Every structure is written in C-alpha cells, then in structure tokens.
Amino acid sequence: MLEVNKLNVFYGKSQALRDVSLRVEEKEIVALVGTNGAGKTTLLNTISGLLHPASGSVEFLGERIDRLAPHRVTQLGICQIPEGRKLFSEMTVRDNLEMGAYSSAAWKRKKETLERVYQLFPVLKERRNQSAKKLSGGERQMVAIGRGLMSSPRLCMFDEPSYGLAPKLFSEVLEVIKQLRGQGITIFLVEQNVRNTLEVADRAYVLENGQIVLEGKGRDLLQNELVKKAYLGL
Ligand SMILES: Nc1ncnc2c1ncn2[C@@H]1O[C@H](COP(=O)(O)OP(=O)(O)OP(=O)(O)O)[C@@H](O)[C@H]1O
Ligand SMILES: [Mg+2]
Q1: Which residues have their alpha-adjacent CB atom under 5 A from ion ligand 2?
Q2: Measured from the CB, is residue 218 less than 6 Å from ligand 1?
Q3: Ligand 1 atom closest to the CA of 42, numbered from 1
Q4: Looking at the structure, do residues 70 and 158 belong to the same domain, yes or no?
Q5: pLDDT tens readout for residues 8-41
Q6: CATH code (residue 13)
Q7: What is the spatial distance between Cα 42 and Cα 160, in angstroms, rounded to a whole number?
Q8: CB within 8 Å of 167: residues ≥ 6 apart
C-alpha cells in the first residue's frame, strides 16, 4: 500500500533522513520506533506532503505522492494524527472533528462518519458541545484520532500517540488502533514507547539518526538484543 524508497530529506544543509526505505501492506499495523530527534516526524511529514525529499520516492497504491501537496495526499486516503495537544482549543469537540472532513467527498459523508467516530468514542458524543480545552489528555487524543478518521482514510499514521498519556490510556489507544485495523484501516504507528508498540505491531522498523537500523516482526524485535539494551532497558 505504502512504499518509501531511499528517501533523503534535509532541513537546509542538515540531513534528517538518510536512504530510508520501508513498506506498509494493506491492513497491517507497522510501527516505526526511535528516540527523540531520530527523524520520525520528519518521515511522517514527508509522506503526508508537508515536506518534500531531496531524493527518493514515496508511493501510495502504486502512485508517486512525494511531490503532491498535503491536501491531495489526504484526498488519496492518508491521514496523519498528531499528538492530542494540537487541537483548536477554543472550538467545540464537534467543530474540531468536522475540521477533519474538509475535502468535498468527506464533507458529503460527514454525518455518517461523525456517527462512527461517536460510536468509537462515546465520551466525545457526550462532550460534543464543549470546548476542546476542557478535555483531559486522553480525551484530546481521542479527538485527534476522530478528526483524522473524519477524512475516511485508508492509511492512518499516528505520531507518538503515547505522548503525555498515562500508560493505561495509551493501552486504550492501542486497543482503538487494533479496532481500526479490524475495520480495514491500515496503520503506521510512530512511537518512542517501544515495548507496548512492538507488542501490537505486525512488523516494525527502528530508526536511529535518520537511518533504519533494524526491521522485523514486532514480537521478534522484542527479543532482539540491540532493542532490549537500547530501548527496553534490559
Ligand atoms: N523544522 C526543522 N528545521 C530544522 N531542523 C529540524 C526541523 N524539524 C526537525 N529538525 C531536526 O531533524 C531531526 C529529526 O527531527 P524529528 O522531529 O523528525 O525527530 P523525531 O524522531 O520526531 O523526534 P521526537 O521524538 O522528539 O518528536 C532532528 O535533529 C531535528 O532537530
Ligand atoms: Mg516527532
């Protein structure tokens, strides 16, 4: 579904991604783990069209997307879910969610998708008329996810959903991610919380200093000596 091939991305003269290649098959949960500054957000921003690579390519469903504008990438069925703090805090929950349906195709389906989001997160239905700033961290994360789903994506990319969440809430987010996959949505999950992430991922990649250094099945990587030492504190 998604194929990233030898991507090189720079900020001015400084190189943030070096020959990064990876693939995500339809209905997989694929994780990318790495510490602060490894280049995780840079990769997501390149896939979603916010950044353009100096070289290399990104293909989605067989089509080159690395020169497209972000709204075109969204229309093709890719959504990027930032951490839950990036909401419009003065707007209501419902208005925040509806912002995710800005393409004309998604706008037409808005009522129906909104109901699906409320089914997934009943608490958001209860709070739909409240301003987003009054929500808890976990509820804000739910709004961020719900807003992404409003574009009816085929591939959902999550940027560190564990950020600022208690472990129990992050486990709940992972349950939601599994549910979304069950509904046929493909997941690309970027995380620093390596243990919980590798437990749910079918396959995973480890990114260090802008380079992929390891890849494998999620459960196999949990047993990998480098991963244990560098990321699990074992
Ligand atoms: N807008 C920018 N301008 C210049 N350098 C940047 C910019 N954004 C990121 N960088 C640099 O690129 C590298 C990768 O950053 P990136 O944000 O992709 O890492 P990350 O893995 O998402 O980290 P974190 O876990 O802290 O979010 C870092 O060295 C960072 O300082
Ligand atoms: Mg980041």
Answers
A1: 40-41
A2: no
A3: 18
A4: yes
A5: 999 999 999 999 999 999 999 999 999 999 999 9
A6: 3.40.50.300
A7: 13
A8: 196
